[in-house]
């Protein structure tokens, strides 16, 4: 795959991140298409610029940082056209490759032997200064941008709980015969892994299915062969005909359809509930969010604070595997598939690993998530993909002390590039699941349409 963007370059020393940039430009287009290649070029360029800025002060007289501009602000290239962006990425790559990686690169043989020891010491000192500078910038970014104040998190949780209580009362009163377990709130807001703003939570709505009427079928055991997804098949129709179960109204082709289940709740939540009246009682502004892949409520609980609450029907299998009605991205082809949810397991694994060694895994993940959230061009990288790339890195890297944050963050970027080169990102907890399986090539015209380009430019300014 590396041959697509040019010949595979010879392997360089790990004293820079030029190799990571080369891999991105060479291989990302094959896996994610033109838009995905540009996306990852942006991500790598952002880290390179932060790295380069630290490196050039005061060693390099050729670059000057403009006063008053923070190292995390990159206003020029966020709204660039594809041609300008590709040019800038290539220029950045060339500038990285021109950085001295060895004290012997430009010295004659005799002088190099005479001054080798002193040059090596200076090089090591300069590299230590670069690592320290990047380390300081990452922790500053974590504290100032990624981490959310406890008061803001508490306010968002209270708002989510108020809306959940209203929904619970309404559903029990409107449809007392609907077989539901107790609803509860979930998501990164409750795992302390949300970043930038406390603006998203999940309302889990567990359904009750009769054991003798329904049976789960793993996606890899079907003709579709999609690990990480399940079918829920209707059974025993000869003894229990249609109508014996409340959920028979949502059966399509012999299988319980998550799409129809969502539509059932959407008619109730958006069509029957008087949200303006409920919002006036709670002193909130509540409305269905449009457009949305799933049923989402937008809750404005303070003048400048909004919370997006995803309404997720949930099935709990006998062995405890949770399935959620979150559609496959190729919904037309896989509309009957239920998605296996591993978010809670991933979060628990991260916390357990950090507690064992006092590590910085959660902090590293938050920095990566914040970078992606703050830049609209990087939103395709999901939290699940970043989390699993970090968990896989934890299996091979043992030093996760807070002092190693900079090294681990750069390793995480290189690991993502490596997964792109391989064309596969396995789930750390369920290796058969490929987290890239839903990605499809897209043209740049769909990636940056005229309607989104002004938004990118405005964000960059």
Characterization of the model:
The chain has 461 residues and is of the alpha+beta class. Helix content is 47%, strand content 12%. It contains 13 helices and eleven strands. The chain has helices at 18-55, 82-97, 109-146, 150-174, 188-191, 258-271, 275-282, 343-357, 361-374, 383-396, 405-422, 444-447, 453-460; strands spanning 184-186, 200-206, 214-218, 229-234, 251-252, 255-256, 285-288, 295-302, 305-316, 322-324, 338-340. The strands form two sheets. Strands 1, 2, 3, 4, 7, 8, 9, 10 and 11 form a nine-stranded mixed beta sheet that branches. It has a two-stranded antiparallel sheet with strand order 5-6. A hairpin with a 6-residue loop joins strand 7 (285-288) and strand 8 (295-302). Helix 9 packs antiparallel against helix 10 (383-396). The chain is globular, with a radius of gyration of 25 Å. Residues 1-16, 28-35, 54-107 and 443-461 have low confidence and may be disordered.
């Amino acid at each position: 795959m590396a041959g697509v963007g040019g010949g595979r370059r010879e392997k360089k020393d790990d004293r820079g991140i030029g190799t990571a940039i080369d891999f991105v430009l060479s291989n990302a287009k094959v896996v994610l298409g033109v838009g995905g290649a540009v996306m990852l070029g942006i991500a790598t360029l952002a880290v390179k610029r932060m790295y380069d800025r630290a490196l050039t002060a005061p060693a390099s007289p050729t670059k000057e940082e403009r006063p008053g501009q923070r190292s995390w602000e990159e206003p020029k290239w966020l709204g660039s056209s594809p041609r300008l962006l590709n040019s800038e990425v290539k220029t950045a790559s060339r500038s990285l490759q021109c950085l001295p990686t060895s004290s012997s690169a430009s010295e004659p043989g005799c002088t190099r032997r005479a001054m080798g020891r002193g040059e090596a010491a200076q090089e090591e000192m300069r590299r230590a200064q670069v690592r320290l500078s990047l380390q300081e910038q990452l922790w500053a970014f974590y504290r100032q941008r990624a981490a959310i104040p406890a008061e803001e998190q508490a306010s968002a949780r209270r708002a989510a709980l108020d809306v959940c209580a209203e929904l619970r009362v309404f559903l029990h009163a409107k449809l007392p015969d609907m077989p539901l377990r107790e609803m509860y709130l979930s998501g990164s807001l409750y795992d302390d892994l949300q970043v930038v703003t406390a603006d998203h939570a999940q309302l889990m709505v567990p359904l009750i299915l009769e054991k003798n009427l329904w049976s789960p079928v793993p996606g890899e055991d079907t003709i579709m062969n999609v690990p990480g997804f399940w079918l829920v098949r209707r059974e025993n129709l000869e003894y229990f005909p249609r109508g014996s179960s409340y959920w028979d109204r949502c059966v399509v082709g012999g299988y319980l359809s998550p799409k129809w289940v969502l539509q059932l709740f959407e008619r109730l939540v958006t069509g029957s509930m008087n949200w303006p009246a409920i919002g006036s009682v709670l002193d909130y502004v509540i409305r269905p969010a449009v457009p949305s892949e799933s049923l989402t409520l937008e809750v404005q609980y303070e003048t400048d604070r909004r919370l997006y609450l995803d309404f997720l029907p949930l099935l709990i299998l006998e062995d405890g595997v949770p399935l959620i009605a979150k559609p496959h991205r190729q919904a037309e082809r896989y509309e009957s598939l239920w998605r296996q949810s591993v978010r809670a397991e991933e979060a628990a694994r991260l916390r357990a690993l950090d507690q064992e060694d006092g590590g910085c895994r959660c902090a590293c993940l938050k920095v990566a998530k914040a970078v992606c959230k703050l830049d609209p061009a990087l939103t395709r990288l999901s939290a699940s993909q970043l989390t699993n790339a970090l968990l896989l890195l934890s299996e091979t890297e043992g030093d996760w002390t807070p002092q190693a944050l900079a090294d681990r963050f750069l390793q995480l970027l290189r690991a993502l590039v490596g997964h792109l080169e391989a064309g596969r990102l396995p789930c750390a907890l369920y290796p058969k699941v490929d987290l890239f399986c839903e990605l499809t090539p897209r043209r740049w015209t769909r990636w940056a349409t005229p309607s989104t380009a002004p938004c990118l430019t405005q964000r960059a300014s």
